[in-house]
Task: inverse folding
């Protein structure tokens, strides 16, 4: 099955976010599902989410001033990937 560039891009974003989460939490990246709930499935607290937000901001060079607040409102890898993809797309 052929993948579009957009599909490849979102998968790359998801994988990079999973690596960030893995670095912060020591949860293996390949065991983090795109739809895993940060709170319910991964048991992440607000401090871990803050560190993930800072690392995602750095990883993608986003420079979003309120990313720490915005990422706290997102519940899964997919939601964060969508935010990152939308932010990157708005710059093109």
Result:
């Amino acid at each position: 099955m052929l993948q579009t560039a957009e599909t490849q891009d979102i998968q790359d974003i998801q994988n990079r976010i999973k690596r960030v989460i893995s670095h912060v939490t020591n949860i293996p990246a390949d065991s983090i599902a795109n739809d895993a709930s940060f709170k319910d499935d991964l048991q992440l607290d607000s401090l871990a989410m803050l560190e993930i937000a800072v690392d995602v901001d750095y990883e993608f060079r986003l420079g979003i001033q309120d990313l720490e607040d915005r990422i706290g409102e997102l519940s899964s890898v997919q939601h964060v990937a969508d935010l990152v993809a939308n932010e990157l797309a708005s710059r093109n």
